[in-house]
Amino acid sequence: MDATDRLLTALAAQRLLPVLRSTDAAAAVDRTRRLLDAGCEAVELTTSTPDWAEALATLRAEGRGQLGVGTISTAEQAESAVRAGADFLVTPFPAPAVRPVAAEAGVVLIEGGFTPGEIADAAGRGPAKVFPAHVGGPRFLSSLRAVLPDAVLIPTGGISLAEAPSYLKAGALAVGIGSGLPEEPDELTAVFRDS
Fold first, then answer.
1. Is the pLDDT of residue 100 over 80?
2. What is the spatial distance between Cα 142 and Cα 44, in angstroms, rounded to a whole number?
3. Please, which residues have CB within 8 angstroms of residue 150's CB and are 6 or more apart in sequence?
4. Taking the complete model, does pTM exceed 0.90, yes or no?
5. Which of 41, 111, 129, 163 is the catalytic position?
6. Distance in angstroms between the alpha carbons of the first and the last residue of the chain
7. Using CB atoms within 10 A of its CB, is residue 31 exposed (0-12), middle (13-18) or buried (19+)?
8. Which candidate in 44, 76, 111, 163 is catalytic?
9. Residue 124 confidence (pLDDT)
10. CA-CA distance, 56 to 66, in Å (whole number)?
11. Integer CA distances (angstroms), 195 to 70, 136, 183, in order
């Protein structure tokens, strides 16, 4: 099983992709550990977290889960993420400069887009992030699915935990959730057990 298949299998199982925007590296490490302990297999840290590369390197050294970095928009950020041990990279929009970095490193790229053309282009290379998904909602995702039946779509941006099932029903492989995941360990475990 290659890196893309491993990631897509994990996302299909957990149905949610936590997207962490933390106040600092220590908070990102703590939150990621709690997510992994709850049964989450893949977590996305973001470049908007101060010292995100340090957080990723700390977590990678523990050897748990599939860890990605989102809000990647430059080749330099992609290179830093790869050096820190990222399993996957996520961009918020088309990012041609990131593509060769991911390809050379053998790291999965989930490239973002919003228009049907941007999403079709990204989906032609791998999984595509639909962002900001809340603008179009589940009906927009259904429309994309109708013209891109084989695309792997991961809507992200402004989606609450309660809204996630509507996006899954509309054809998402998984839904990126940036806020609203429970803090209580038992409740968090239930999210990944029952999703």
1. yes
2. 25
3. 123
4. yes
5. 129
6. 24
7. buried
8. 44
9. 97
10. 11
11. 22, 23, 16
* Whether 44 is catalytic: yes
Under 8 Å between Cβ of 18 and 35: yes
The verdict on whether omega for the bond into residue 132 sits within 30 degrees of 0, i.e. cis, is yes
Q: What is the pLDDT of residues 54-88, one digit of tens each?
A: 999 999 999 999 999 999 999 999 999 999 999 99
Q: Is 27 exposed, middle or buried (0-12, 13-18, 19+ CB in 10 A)?
A: middle
CA distances from 101 to 20, 82, 83, 142 (A): 23, 8, 11, 32
| Structure confidence at residue 38 as a pLDDT band (50, 70, 90) | very high
Can you tell me the distance from the alpha carbon of 153 to that of 114, in angstroms, rounded to the nearest whole number?
11
User: What burial class does residue 129 get, using C-beta atoms within 10 Å of its C-beta: 0-12 exposed, 13-18 middle, 19+ buried?
Assistant: buried
Our separate counts of H helices and E strands in the chain read: 9, 8
User: Tokens 């959730």 identify what position?
Assistant: 177
Please count the other Cβ atoms lying within 10 Å of the Cβ belonging to residue 189. 16
Residue 188 identity: L
- 169 a catalytic residue: no
Q: For position 195, what pLDDT does the model report?
A: 60
Residue 131 pLDDT greater than 70, yes or no: yes
The DSSP bridge partners found for residue 67 are: 43
